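WARN no homologs supplied; continuing
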Amino acid sequence: MKFRFKAFGLHLLGSAIVLTLVLGGLYVGWYRWPGWYLTNVGHVAAIVGSVDLTLGPLVTLIIANPGKPRRELARDIAMIASVQIAALIYGAGALWHGRPLYYTFSKDRLQIVQASDLDPNEIDLGRKQNPTLAPHWYSLPRWVWAPLPQDPEERSRIVSEAVMGSGTDVIQMPRYFKPWEQGEPELLAQLKAVDHLDIFSKKEKQALKDRMARLGFATDQPIALFVTGNSRPVLALFDPHTRQIKAILQAD
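OK structure emitted
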């Protein structure tokens, strides 16, 4: 059994190191709070982790027989590692494809935009017409303002298609993005007290106000805006003087 547990421990350690490097790199670069929550990627990370940290080392524990020829044992472990690597590549690919690229302010809300939300044609147009804020493979998440275009016809088309769900919304059009600072006056005008944000339930509002009070925020002041994604919205709290986000709180 000593041989089996040694093989298990080494396999577990190696798997943990590789998994930490891959998932840690994605987290530090793209999925920091609130990215991991708003993209709802916990299930993908859990599947990858269960395969790499549980199934792989456990199978090694089972097949690691000291009486087995070393060549045969190496072949078996290599097969296990191949399955682990395939699962890791699949999971990392899914996380990369869905990585957060923007936090956009548009009209009355903040919304996360993932790489999978952007059409390649819109990316090309963005790189041609708005190269400073267009996405690239190495782009990290950015906070941007996404106003509707000035042209009335284009503006009307985008709004109608977004409402019908049949087209691309302005938050998916990097060619129209503007620096965050330019949208701050409009953003400040949209800030509300938590009780006036109807996207949250009564229970969620109370939980948010409790957390705000513990952090020293006034719960009855218009300093909040919600942020949407693939999960329940979160609450962004602003300093009305510096115009900076001071905290982002989970409602559930």
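Strands lie at 100-106, 109-114, 142-145, 178-179, 224-228, 234-238, 245-250.
OK
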